[in-house]
């Protein structure tokens, strides 16, 4: 069809390309503004220990309150920004903000909780990342073991040598490395022994298919067993139902995360949510079946 349409088609193609480039350039300068004007914030999703239902910490999910476009989810802007030179600065903001939150949690008496941040490959492989993180930790005096860095399998595939060096440096600093969306990349199991990760997050696709699909269930069960046997922490993400939660708990999954447990909480709501739910005892549920979500009816963020 492209050939038959001739010149017009190429022109169309060209304009689509330049449109894309324009969007990228525009978004990059908007992201610059966003950092200057505090338009980024975290939505914090609780993670709970599945054996005793206690809160262990939060995953920090980036949100952008854009002056014209409203609230933008990371799935919209990260894939575009990821390929800009500016994106490392967004990563610096994420690291700085997470460390600040950890300092706040400690002040509020929740110093045992962890914050997990997500870094894209370009942010993780950036030479300035480690020294910046080291400064942030030294200046804040937070316990580095409360900070977790989530990376996807695919970020680890690229430039493996350098990724390994950086992963080792994180470990030396006492920061935990988590493999996100485990099972969706193309990497082999061998990196489980090469990468010094302490936490493995099973992708929500497997969790959600688990009860209907026998193959998914076997994959989840075997993965949990493997990770447990390796002495690593296994997290299940995307838990949306009580039966998924219950099945995962029986399979000895360590930590759970998902809408059924709690939706992400806006930063501004964090302290009140912590107080409210600790008061109600929701973070520490009775160990028989859980009847209700830990946090209900939050607006979807
Ligand atoms: P992720 O790291 O795998 O984060 C989990 C995503 O699943 C989040 O989407 C979360 O809101 C969503 N989620 C949590 N529980 C459930 C559930 O029960 N069901 C379903 N259907 N979804 C659930 P979100 O916040 O839109 O983030 C999407 C992705 O964007 C993240 O996937 C992560 O890869 C990336 N991301 C988020 N924040 C950052 C960041 O600060 N930096 C970078 N580089 N990437 C980020
Ligand atoms: Mg993640
Ligand atoms: Mg994930
Ligand atoms: Mg995911």
TrEMBL record:
Residues 24-278 form the EAL domain. Keywords: Coiled coil, Membrane, Transmembrane, Transmembrane helix. This is EAL domain-containing protein. The chain holds residues 524 to 824 of 824 of the full protein.
